[in-house]
Predict the structure.
Amino acid sequence: MAETSENQEQQVAEASGDRRAELEGILAQKEEEISLQSTRIAELEQSLAESNGKLTEASTALAQAIANYRTLAVQSEPLAPADMIKGDSIETIDASLKSAREVISKVKAGLEAEGKVARVPAGAPQRRTFSLSALSPRDKIRSAIGGNK
């Protein structure tokens, strides 16, 4: 029986050693996977930082392009007040430019209609000859000597 218990202890020790070696192998494999994943995470974080930088640059460039577009839109419509042309995108600038053009055309139409109604001839009025036939003889004499009393 002593041999059996020694035998059993030896089998348990061998099984424990085998199990330990197996677990150490699994642990080494998992540590390698963690290392690979950590490297992948670092690469992805670097890629994300680069993408964020590019996005910031693109946003800045877009804002500058929109500001330049607005400036050109204001210059292309000298009759439109600059504060009427506004927006933070090309679409909103185009919409405000269209609105400004409509206001300009309405004002022009109103001024033209007003100008047609109140037409004033250019220059001095025409000279009229003074008809003396309706005056009495006394008034005719006064008119001739320059006395209008």
User: Anything to note?
Assistant: The chain has a mean pLDDT of 86.
